[in-house]
Amino acid sequence: MALRHPQLTERGELRHLLTIEGLPREMIHRILDTAASFVGVSDRDVKKVPLLRGKSVFNLFFENSTRTRTTFEIAAKRLSADVVNLNINTSSTSKGESLLDTIDNLVAMHADMFVVRHAESGAPFLIAQHVDRGRGRGHVHVINAGDGRHAHPTQGLLDMYTIRHFKGDFTRLRVAIVGDVLHSRVARSDIHALTTLGVPEVRVIGPRTLIPGGLEQLGVRVFNDMREGLRGVDVVITLRLQSERMRGALLPSAQEYFKQYGLTQEKLALAAPDCIVMHPGPMNRGVEIESAVADGPRSVILDQVTFGIAVRMAVMSILAQS
Ligand code: CP
């Protein structure tokens, strides 16, 4: 008998959002459809909706963030939740309090949802297991906002929302993910989402030192030559070099990397004429992407950020119903 993933209830409802791996296709579509209903309310002049009124959402960011933390805060406020941004640097974790003791104290303050970013892969999973066993059982939800190199499910979902918005049907696409796949939680979440949604050709492009083994088993084609890998693709997702997660020298230099794997107008010309360019941010211009591409007509990078609000609203509102 297959073991149930702790992010789903026995009835298949979303209890936590920890990873896209194993998330049923119907659930991904439900999140994207719910997000579509919120895109209108993401406009500045549209009023809030009361779906999380009386609920407290705690943002626990143990690692830096601009886009994810801020869009979760905006999303929670648009759903009428009370939002608490715990300042990790001034919290009691800096006095030696354990992660789970911090969680117990926040549950005692009637937290309803934790949005967790952590440098350690598995930290949100650990918190979810802990609240399911303890005082938070049944009412506290955990959302993974990026853990180590493991998963970044809401980024994966907002990437799928963006692709669906610009391209429609997933089942006719060629999608290329370029760069430091080895250290990228976004790449892992995108690969699981794209293959679950039926994208027939998912490509990964990068130097051998930055491509993990075993991708072929996930149904992914690996290219070490960028020009070859970009040929005819409909979507290109460019990744940042995750130097903070690299151990040892994996690349000759940033300049050499840009020459081989930087997305330039000249290389992009090999993709389909209407290919869109995505990047989860933060971007390193002149390292993985040329400014003319990042700011060019094919770039949907800032659309991704805006859609992130609606997607995070969708995830939180679906969790609140379980
Ligand atoms: N894409 C992303 O996770 O960006 P932040 O690190 O700014 O949240």
Number of helices: 11
Number of extended strands: 9
Which small compounds were modeled alongside the protein?
Answer: phosphoric acid mono(formamide)ester
Q: CATH H level of the largest domain: which superfamily?
A: Aspartate/ornithine carbamoyltransferase
**Shape category:** globular
Instruction: Kindly report the oligomeric state of this protein.
Output: single chain
Order of helices and strands: HEHEHEHEHEHEEHEHHEHH
Tell me about the biggest sheet? 5 strands, parallel
Helical proportion, percent range: 25-40%
CATH architecture of the largest domain: 3-Layer(aba) Sandwich
Low-confidence segments, given as residue ranges, are: none
Instruction: Supply the CATH class of the largest domain.
Output: Alpha Beta
For the record, the count of structural domains works out to 2
- Using only CA atoms, what is the Rg? 19 Å
Provide structural commentary.
It is a single chain. Strand 1, helix 2 and strand 2 form a beta-alpha-beta unit. The strands form 2 sheets. A 5-stranded parallel sheet has the order 7-6-5-8-9. With 322 residues, it is an alpha/beta fold. Helix 1 crosses helix 5, helix 2 packs across helix 11 and helix 5 packs across helix 6. The mean pLDDT is 93. It folds into 2 domains: 142 residues, Aspartate/ornithine carbamoyltransferase (Rossmann fold), CATH 3.40.50; 148 residues, 3-Layer(aba) Sandwich (Rossmann fold). The chain is built from 11 helices and 9 strands. The structure holds phosphoric acid mono(formamide)ester. Phosphoric acid mono(formamide)ester (CP) binds next to helix 2.
